[in-house]
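1st attempt posting a full record on here, be nice pls
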Amino acid sequence: MELEELIKRGYELLAEGDLDQALDAAREVQKENPDEAEGFIMEAEVMQKLTQWDPSLKMVAKAMEMIGETSRLLNLRGYALMQTGDTENAREDFDAAIEIDDSPVGHRNVVLCLIIEERGTQALDYLVEQIRNNPKEVEHWVLMGDIMKKGGQEEKARGFYEQALTMNPDHAYARKQLEG
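the predicted structure (as tokens):
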């Protein structure tokens, strides 16, 4: 299998939740082309799905040695740091990622970081601002639905999930939240 095909297949397996096979693909990419950062990035993502934060951080560090601090890598590292309780450095990574490409993922990570830091009001204000700035970003609406649901605001949550489905009728998670 060619390198590009192997990388594509690895990410398909990751999306399907076949973490063992995705990890095998990541390691095969690393073996076949040790100078290719994507194998290390894929392994970092698999490790995060397995909640293996230290191995994920090691893989991100290897990838950063190869290609520098990209928005994607900063978000991956920041997410792992946040999960280990290092919200200060996580927030620095998220802010740096946002400066690079202003990605919605970075903004959602900031919201999660604020919630972990028990700054819920700030998190909600930040997310509302992101929804205003980028109302077509489906995942912002889903995250707001999740926050409302956790807060016991079932009807408000329902409205956010319904809005997400209006924008993306195939959004399985939002549909599941409305059904369950």
